[in-house]
Predict the structure.
Amino acid sequence: MKLIKVEHAYKIYKNGTTAIADLSVTIDKGEFVFVIGPTGSGKSTFIKMLYREEKPTKGSVIVGGIDVAKLRNSKVYKLRRKLGVVFQDYKLLPKLTVYENVAFALENLGLPNSEIRPKVLKAIESVGLKEKTRNLPNELSGGEQQRVAIARAIVNDPKLLICDEPTGNLDADTSAEIMNILERINQESETTIIMATHDRDIVNRMKKRVLVIENGVLVSDIKKGSYVVNESDKDSKKKHS
Amino acid sequence: MRAIRILRRSIRDSFKSIFRNFSLSMASIICTTITLILVAISLFLSYNVRQITTTLEHELTVVVYLDFDVTEEQKIRIENDLKTMSTVEDYTMKSKEEWKSEIGRESEVFGSALKIFEENPLYDSIIVKVKNVDDLKETAEKLRTYDFVDSAEYGEGMVESIINIFDIISLGTISIVIALVVVTAFLISNTIKLTIFSRKTQIEIKRLVGASNVAIKLPFIFEGFTLGVFGSILPILLSIYGYTLLYNVTGGYISTKVITLVEPFPFVFIVSLFLLVIGSIVGMIGSWLSVRKHLKI
Ligand SMILES: Nc1ncnc2c1ncn2[C@@H]1O[C@H](COP(=O)(O)OP(=O)(O)OP(=O)(O)O)[C@@H](O)[C@H]1O
Ligand SMILES: [Mg+2]
């Protein structure tokens, strides 16, 4: 089943920059997809179109049956409730505890406290932060903060989890922990995960489907199980052969 | 239920925010308070003026004395004219003969004194009742233009000056109130603007997790509403206790019995309700202006 269907999408920013050009791709329910490419290639722009932070200038972007291009501003929340988003900079509220940060997502949807509590505790437990429920974000390490952000993104059981460089600020070991959590979420609840990253090591280790974007163009769509060839590898191969 | 929970959480958030931006909130509240005190004063004034005018309406008469040697034709002419005057409600002619017999009936001394005169020394008169207080002056002036009218009098001067003074005062207060309402709305909108800026991240996250636009905007509208309600507390207390005190101290009259004050109950409660409504509406309009301008979502 197709969860995401992008057809001939373009994103031209107001200042004239073409960030995405004629991009077409489909992603199935339950897939784990990496989006890679050099800096400024359009990864974030592509991802932003999926959760309607940006509207495609041309073409269509359909996520979970919702046509993002036609979605009115006042209806964006309908799309957002079907997905979770995680960023490089966590975006936690500094004055709220771990529990409150995660509960924040559900409180704003108007759920009763009796329903909020078990969901929040379950989400916190699934990212392994049970011991830190009452801590404030500044009492946590970067990796722990990112795990709170993940808990908040999955607390409402979204079909889709979108991550824009979630490991961008983390060292290799912490990144690996985060990747384990994401892998588990993807497998246990069949949540589709789309993750933009710079980290080719992670991509190569996970062996998932990879979309490579360069200058706003989807240059290759590498299927699950393959390695991504590093720029340096390409050069060395050329030298060797 | 969902709506009620969102409402309850919005109220909680708005209270938190008011106390977090305390000095700014205080400025808005004080401005609202000053505005509403003036609103209360102008309400009390205009209601009492209306009361005075109704009191005065019992005295809507112009007394016309005709010249001593007025002819029958002239009397008929003025009568016919009175019938066509739009400002005249009613009139009663009283000839000098009628006066004479009336006086004779009421007082024997005066009656017999009048008999001394060969010719009746009294004047023919007309009591003209006009429709409105405003008609008094016009009618009297018109009647004075007849050369056989000796005089046309009414409670000249006093009635008009009272009404004029109150008119000027209430016009003045109304303009000040309007200006202050505008200032208050802008001050509140500025307070809300700073709240919006200080909560940029929170708003961003709310959008991200799928809060509806209403759920995002509501706390700010509530904050404006609450500022307005807080601002109306003091004016309401002043209205209830201040006006009741004034009424009791003066016994309900100012200077003469002409100016009677409106009974304090339920008047002060109606005024209080009005103040509360104005305060909260100004607060909500202020925050709505800000939300519309700075919270484009
Ligand atoms: N809001 C914007 N207005 C104008 N141009 C923008 C805007 N956002 C991004 N761009 C431009 O669009 C292009 C793609 O940017 P984008 O952020 O999608 O790249 P990226 O692949 O995510 O880069 P990075 O790896 O550094 O995060 C860049 O040239 C960038 O300068
Ligand atoms: Mg980016």
Q: What stands out?
A: Residues 56 and 207 of chain B are 63 Å apart (CA to CA). Chain B has two domains: 2-56+161-294, 61-153.
